[in-house]
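Board notes (copied after class):
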Amino acid sequence: MKKQSFAIIVLVIIAALSSFKIKRDSLEEIFIKINQDVLYRGRSYETLGDATSTIGHRLTGSTNGKKAEEYAYKLFKEYGFVDVKYLPFEVESWARDTVSLAIVPKGSDNFRDVEVVALAHSPVSSHLQGPIVDCGDGIESDFEKVKAEVKGKIALFNINIQTPENKGKKNLHRSEKTALAIKYGATGVIIANAVDGGVLLTGTASVTGELIPIPAVCISVESGKAIRKWIKDEPNLLAVIDMRNFSRPIRARNVIATLPGSSKKYKKEKIVIGGHLDSWDLATGAMDNGIGSFTVLDIARVFQSLNLRPKRTIEFVMFMGEEQGLLGSKAMVKKYKEEGKIDQVQLMVNLDMVNNAKGFNAMGRPELQKFFDEIGAKIKEIDSTYTNTNRNSAGLHSDHQPFMIEGVPVCSPSGNFPVKAYNCYHANCDKFDLIDKKQIGNNVRFTAMMLYALAEAEDLPVKKMNDQETKEFLIKQNLKNELIIGKDWRWEQ
């Protein structure tokens, strides 16, 4: 009788336990835990400092690039991720060798050397001499003005919008301006930077990540002004560009750590959060994009440290090849499509040059901005320095782009950099001394909170768009022309 009574009691307890749902911590409680973890155990600043000092630059396809991939893989493992993998892809590796630019009046031997940097994906070898044509800011209306002159000559234009007549017009990426120069028949490109102090900028001049047929170089803003003045004084001015570069097919690797979702209903839904690990080779890429990628790495650490298991699956991604044409993110999206899994990706969160996060950019999706406003108010209760300043402006030229043109909702934290840091974009001063420990910590704290809220939400406020909806969205966001120039518009024109 006693045994029967005991068995009944056990069955009653089991039944009670099976019907009892363990209460999850509230969002506010989770946010407090995240806040404390990052404030007292955060490692983003330290790991980025270590990587910049022990690896150096992280150029895709280089020995340093491979070291960076391995560094990120080991960190994910160290943080406790079981499912960590490389996603290899083929790229045309490009590296600079030598480059020079001289300016000389026609028929003269009065050569003036100009300090210069080659732009990526310029030809392997080029020796070019030709007249210079001032193409203003390098947008299409500027090329239209000089289309009768620029063919067969070297185009000079600004990296940004500087001329009064173009005030308020949308600027183009340097690769898109180079594509226009090629379209209008230029034989070479000289791009003037916008930063005072002799700063030279590098970056790709190719919209596809493949070699371009003409040499492209960058000069300082001061050199640009001097050449323009000289053109007015000496109409028959010639530019002489000499360059040698290296290019060969290589394999690079994205690094992906997966945190499985805890809900049977939602675990097949994925949120991808990533930042590009690669950088240019003039410095150590602390700002572009060490600050973004190492923020993502530390957010991953936080989730493991606190054993956070939200409903949806999260993939933490270190992209390579971003600087050479979004190659890593394009490879990841291609793989998703080949495997029939692109519809599982419900949201892509991109961190590219994000510093001191104070809000989020909903990238053209107002329903997502409303979510950011609501959750941001809760974050602000945890730390009043979070201003909850949320934007809703879509753009291109980072790893969210391949996801966005497949209809996947995308977003990004937003904040601000000191002017000194902005001026070192793609330049030889992009080093670790630009990074502020507290501000990169803010990236980790506030982005981790928002990521958890998104992954745990009963219903995400945004849905993946179908093909027609995506096309209409991109047109509405005024991105069609840029995508056509960049050869990334996948609909009939």
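Comment from the instructor: Residues 6-23 have pLDDT under 50 and may be disordered. The CA atoms of residues 82 and 333 lie 23 Å apart.
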